[in-house]
């Protein structure tokens, strides 16, 4: 099994950015956590982060051509703005689990809309970094 772990803008700043919201663990430690879990479960993970919407679209398309089995996706702020990411997910029809570290449902109005949600099989919201592991488990169980 091969999964794409995709992170959008500013998630590379984990540990530095608003620790009261996102915690003090760094992006590098998130990658360590995901990679060691994947090793344990015998799955292959490709972890990719970009601050650019088009690069995320390219990566979703690439996942289709590389026979990836599923996507764990935290699109950051693009969650609330990007029809291009929704269309990319709809185009490839790969099972995708949306992840948000913070509880976006309890935050600003502009964070209440997720454009990608209709193309996702599940959403894990507000479970911190553990949310990525839960998302992998959902894809594993399919
Ligand atoms: C986020 C929530 C988004 O609203 C925000 O723009 C992010 C991170 C989260 O993981 O909680 O960058 O996706």
Write the layout of secondary structure elements.
Elements: E1 2-7, H1 19-22, H2 27-41, E2 44-49, H3 53-65, E3 70-74, H4 83-92, E4 96-100, E5 122-125, H5 130-141
Parallel strand pairs: 1-2, 1-3, 3-4, 4-5
Bound molecules: 1,3,4-trihydroxy-5-OXO-cyclohexanecarboxylic acid.
Residues 10, 74, 76-77, 79, 100-102, 104, 111 line the site of 1,3,4-trihydroxy-5-OXO-cyclohexanecarboxylic acid (DQA).
Structural key phrases:
142 residues; 5-stranded parallel beta sheet; binds 1,3,4-trihydroxy-5-OXO-cyclohexanecarboxylic acid; Rossmann fold; 18% strand; alpha/beta
Read across the widest sheet, the strand sequence of neighbours is: 2-1-3-4-5
* Unreliable stretches: none
* Radius of gyration computed on alpha carbons: 14 Å
Strand content: 15-25%
Number of domains: 1
- Which CATH class is shown? Alpha Beta
Average of the residue pLDDT scores: 98
Number of strands: 5
Assign the CATH architecture.
3-Layer(aba) Sandwich
Count of separate DSSP helical elements: 5
Element order: H for helix, E for strand: EHHEHEHEEH
List the bound ligands.
Answer: 1,3,4-trihydroxy-5-OXO-cyclohexanecarboxylic acid
CATH level 3 topology? Rossmann fold
Shape descriptor reads globular
- Category by helix and strand content: alpha/beta
Give the biggest sheet: 5 strands, parallel
The CATH fourth-level homologous superfamily: Dehydroquinase, class II
